[in-house]
Each structure stands twice: as structure tokens, then as C-alpha cells.
Amino acid sequence: MPSYDYVVVGAGPAGAAFAHFASEKGYRVLVLDQAPWPGFKACGWAVPRQIERTIRLPTEVILTEIKRFRVYLDGRPVQEGEEGTWGYIIDKRSFLEYLVSNATLKTKTHVEISFKPRPRVVDDKAPKPSLSYVLAPGSSGLSDADLIYAIQVIVRSSRDVDPEMVELYFQRELVGYYWVFPRGTRVLDIGVGGYRDPKELVEMLKKFVEKLSEERGGLEVIEGPKGAWINVGGVNTQFFNATPPVIGEAAGFVYPITGEGIRPSIVSAAAAFNRLEGRSFPREFDQTVRWIGIQRKLLDMVKKSSPDSRARIIETLPLELFIGIGLGELSFMQLLRALPRLPRGVASVLKEALKGLRR
């Protein structure tokens, strides 16, 4: 059996990205995943353009460029924006396969991991690395984390759709949202995620797709429904700083309000590799951790709010902040200008964020 410098458990965005960074430096990397292929987990495939500060997106994995978005509340449009290219819909499987292309990948391989009393591989049959294991198992085994469920279907439209438009649908009764993401001119990814029982979300998504189909001239489900648990509990620094390091969703590198996990997972992989190499963390790491924390506080506030209060936030949040909070890209001056116009609860969370942005 060949020897490896690093053995990575998990071939999602975090594990695949770590393999990419390490193999680029000449390390021998083995990636193990229990799924049949990388990117098997249900995911909207949307990433903001800021991901390219950490890793290059090959042109061939980009399905569409996102240049417009529309936000709905209880079925009516309340926000709309257009500002160049703010993100991409990517072919997640192709992207992850690209990332692990210089490593050795073994799928359908389960490795037993324990997180108590500390993160470690407890599988005696797992290959032993010469340098370190890297744990990137996603939400698997995180029974104590704050998890939400997300479910999606892929549909074919009988009419052309705008391949540059993403749509987000909020309902005041749901702590979560529906999404409609294009994967081309006739194919859409439609899903819902939030604090509801998975079976209830399945029924909610079915009704949502039926309603959209009536409004848009026919949608045919061609794949799914397919669902997954998502860890929105915030960054677990003890896991990330452990030996071996835990990266990606397992260590909470998911934006809690948006559920975006690809970009922060890759940022965590870059930071973990730097740490193992004895180098400082990338600049993006501190900002990512800070904004995950801000979003987590906002999510806690939203969960405690009444349905009408949640609706007011969606309706009154300035467009600049709506985008910036979701992306984790607000500047000190943007926040300062917006504070007088914000709902009280949002303003109080963001006042704390101002202190961090001053540094």
C-alpha cells in the first residue's frame, strides 16, 4: 500500500480543497469519502465571486454567471438588484473532481470518526498518514450542532428562463427560505431549507413547485427530491484548532443565514493547510469567521422574532445591506450609514459588528 502525507476524510468542498492545496505543494494526499462521488450532497451550487480570492474556478465548471436577483415575501417581490457579476452557479461535482485530480480519491469508503472527547479517527483500518489526518466529514456525526434541513429538486422548464437571475422566496412563517437557481436556460434548481421537519419541507417544496409550474407554464421534475442536514451553529474553533484539524461544515464553516457552505469551507481548508505548514492564515479567514458569527447572531434574533417582525426585516432592510450581510462583505461606512434605517434587533447586532470592522 502506498504511503501518504495527508489522509483527508471527506471529499466535499473543504476536503477536496485541502487536497488541492496540499497536492499543489507536492504532498501525497489520499481522500476518502463514503459517497459514490464528490459533491453527492444536495446543494444549490451557488457561490459568490469572492470565492476566487481563495481558489481559482475553472471556466468549464461555471454553468451560469449570476448578475441579477429578486427577493419575494409571501409571494410578492420586495427587493431586486443588478450589479455586474456577483456570483456563479457551478457544476459542483465537476469542480470537486478538479480539486482532487492530483490526489488519490477513494469513494464508497467509510471511516469512523469520533468528536468526543476530541476529534480523531477511531477506525483501525484507515490508512495512516505520515503527517496528519484532516477531517472534513460535513454534518455527519454532529448530533450536538444546530442543524437545519434543506431539500431540492431539479426541474426542466417548458419555457426559457433567465440564466443570470436567482430568486429567493421568504415566508413570514418560515425561518428559512426557498430558492430558484438556474442551471441553464431550461433547467432550474428549486429548493427550500429551514427549521422544519424534513417531511414537512418535502410537502412544502412540492406545493411550491406546483405553484411555480402554474405561473410559469410548466415545470417537470427530472431529479429529486434530495435533501441534507446543514450545520448552521457557527464556527467551532476547538475543532478547527484540533490535531487533527476539522475543517468545512463539520467545524461550522457555513454562513448560518444563507446556508452557503462552499466558499467558507474552502477558506477553512486554506487556513488549515497554512497552519499545518507553519504559515499565517489567509486574510479571508478572519473575515469569514467574523461574518459567520454575525450571521449566527442575526439568525438567533430572527428565530426569536414574531412572523410579522421577520417580514418587516425582509421588507425594510436596505438593498445594500441585504446583499452585504448575505455575502459577508459590508464595510464599516456602509453599516454606519444604514444603522438609522434598520429594525432595532438588526441594528443592535450590527453595532457589535462595527467594532470588529474597525480593526
Could you describe the 3D structure shown?
The protein has 359 residues and is an alpha/beta fold. The protein folds into 3 domains: 146 residues, FAD/NAD(P)-binding domain; 85 residues, D-Amino Acid Oxidase, subunit A, domain 2 (D-Amino Acid Oxidase, Chain A, domain 2, 2-Layer Sandwich), CATH 3.30.9; 64 residues, no CATH class. The chain is 34% helix and 28% strand. It contains 10 helices and 14 strands. The strands form 3 sheets. The chain has an 8-stranded mixed sheet. Strands 6-2-1-9 form a 4-stranded parallel sheet, covered by helices on one side. It has a two-stranded antiparallel ribbon with strand order 7-8. Helix 1 packs parallel to helix 5, helix 5 packs across helix 6 and helix 6 packs antiparallel against helix 10. The N and C termini lie far apart (50 Å). The mean pLDDT is 91.
In brief, what are we looking at here?
This protein starts with a strand and ends with a helix. A hairpin with a 4-residue loop joins strand 12 and strand 13. Helix 5 packs across helix 6.
